[in-house]
Each structure stands twice: as structure tokens, then as C-alpha cells.
Amino acid sequence: MNAAEQEASDVTQEAPEVNPQYLQQLKDLDIPEEEAKKALILTGNVSAEEAAIFYFDSLENQNPDTDDDDDIYYKMVFVVNMELSMGVGKIAAQVGHGAVGLYQLMLRNSKTKEVADKWEEYGAKKIVLQGSSTSHLLELQALAISLDLPTYLVQDAGRTQIAAGSRTVLAIMGEEEMVNKVTGKLKLLN
């Protein structure tokens, strides 16, 4: 056990209490429970976002002897339009539309297909974040496009909770560092 692992182990034994809401949010991101607890404790139990960043950064640092190409990670991010009154099930369905739509779009182009393949190879990381409004989603999409990141904007058919044509979710995929330039300051969806 190295010093960092020992420190994490010591911290876990001394302060096992973590915020249960933050813990659940991390588990919803497919972070193993024990790893989520360690990340929360080591980041001062401040927020799920801080702990998630810590966890994913520590994953990146686990294999320092790999090639440069192996240091590049990919993720798909979904920004939910929070100005719309969507229930949990509706949001889940809209995020699903975003995932399928963006993935299908990427498979049609040889350059973006390669990115989609690498994304799958590295665990197909997916994050759901909060966007403030339709105009916010459009601004984020414009920034993503300017950075040459593939995007897919979901427009609702209007059959249930919201008006037809409402822009519900923006999906973005690419190298994690580039995607963070677009969405890095947004909050996780609770």
C-alpha cells in the first residue's frame, strides 16, 4: 500500500460519515461506493462535484507509464434545460434521446466514429449537468461546435409534459479536457 492509499485508508477509518446525498450522486455516476466515500472524505465532503472530479482525476493518474494517446480520456455530457418543467422520467427519456442521437450521428462520420470508439474503449463516461435555459444550451452548443466537438440538441415532440419543439437536452462528446472547456463549470443534475 502506497502513502496515498494508506492516507485514504486512515481517513476512511477516522471519518466514515459522508453526506448520503453526495454519496448517492456519485454512485449514480457508476463510481463504486467505497471509492465514492474515499473521494468525499478526501475532498472534505464539500460536494459531489468535487468528489467526482477528485475520483476521475485519480483514475487518470493511476497509469503514468502509458503512451500519450492513453492519457486522453473521452466523455459524453448531457446538459438538461432546467427552465422546462420536466419530471424525472421525462428528463431520463430526453437524456436517452441525446445519447442515442449523438452516438448515431458520430457513427456516420469516420473522424467522429473514431472518437466514439475510443469513448467506448475507456468506459463510456457519461455525465448529466444542469443548464439554465434554452439560450444557455444554444450558447454551449455554439462553443462546443467552435471547438470542433460533436453535439446533438434534443427537441421534444410535445406529446407529454412540454411544448413541441422545446429544446430539452444538449449532448456533447469529445476529449474530456475539451468538453470541460464547455461544461466544466456546470453543476451536476441532482
TrEMBL record:
Pfam families: PTH2, UBA_7. It catalyses: an N-acyl-L-alpha-aminoacyl-tRNA + H2O = an N-acyl-L-amino acid + a tRNA + H(+). Residues 19-61 form the UBA domain. The keyword Hydrolase applies. Its EC number is 3.1.1.29. GO terms for molecular function: peptidyl-tRNA hydrolase activity. Gene3D superfamilies: Bit1, DNA helicase RuvA subunit, C-terminal domain. Residues 1-20 are annotated as: Disordered. One of its GO terms (cellular component) is cytosol. InterPro entries: Pep_tRNA_hydro_II_dom_sf, PTH2, UBA, UBA-like_sf. Keywords: Hydrolase. It comes from the Eukaryota. Belongs to the PTH2 family. NCBIfam families: arch_pth2 (TIGR00283). This is peptidyl-tRNA hydrolase.
